[in-house]
Amino acid sequence: MNREAVIAEALGLLDEAGLDGVSTRRLAKRLNVEQPSLYWHFRTKKDLLAAMAEAAMAPHAAAPLPMPGDDWRDWFADNTRSFRRTLLMRRDGARLHAGSTPTGDLDRIRHKMAFLTASGMPQQDAQTAMLTAGRFTVGSVLEEQADTGPHVGADLPADLPAIDHESAFEAGLALILNGLTHPTEA
User: Fold this and answer.
1) Would 19 disulfide with which of 46, 92, 160, 164, CB 3.0-4.6 Å?
2) Tens digit of pLDDT for each residue in 116-130?
3) pLDDT tens digits for 80-94?
4) Got the DSSP string for 134-176?
5) Is 3-55 in CATH node 1.10.10.60?
6) CA distance 91 to 15
């Protein structure tokens, strides 16, 4: 049993049981080991969850970085969509990611920030844009993953439309991009 195998099995447990179902007891049982042996790889459950969050983000971490000459708007939208797709790949992916610190991704984040500033965006605006897009995406996916479908029997107006999560996400992303393209005076 190595660290990667523990993380892979923990992500399998996440997909099967959801974040609330991930426990070191259940994980040890799945791995056919005693619970204390997990502490060889992860001192605390928080450490395990952080490693799981980093591993779950691997598809987004492999997305192409922006290149000089790329249109920053197109790249920003594609990067945000990639983040959303990655969060949606795992059950409770947004909950797992929320509050995590991207320590393994710092060079990529620096590259993205440098691209935005080289594209003419002030440093503070680039930081705020990345943070805003990230939090918007996590919040959108949290809502989407919590949506249990039609609320039969709920006391809702008959004319309340069903939520199309992808369309709502794209509309919000367009608002963020529009705000970056046409900033208002504060």
Assistant:
1) 92
2) 999 999 999 999 999
3) 999 999 999 999 999
4) HHHHHHHHHHHHH--S--TT----TTPPPP-HHHHHHHHHHHH
5) yes
6) 5
Confidence of residue 184 (pLDDT cuts 50, 70, 90): low
- pLDDT value at residue 153: 54
104 touches 151 (CB < 8 A): no
CATH topology classification for 58-181: Tetracycline Repressor; domain 2 (1.10.357)
Dihedral over Cα of 44, 46, 49, 51: its sign:
negative
Amino acid at 107: D
What pTM did the predictor assign? 0.90
**Nearest Cα to 127, choosing from 140, 108, 144, 109?**
109
Domain with CATH 1.10.10.60 in the chain: 3-55
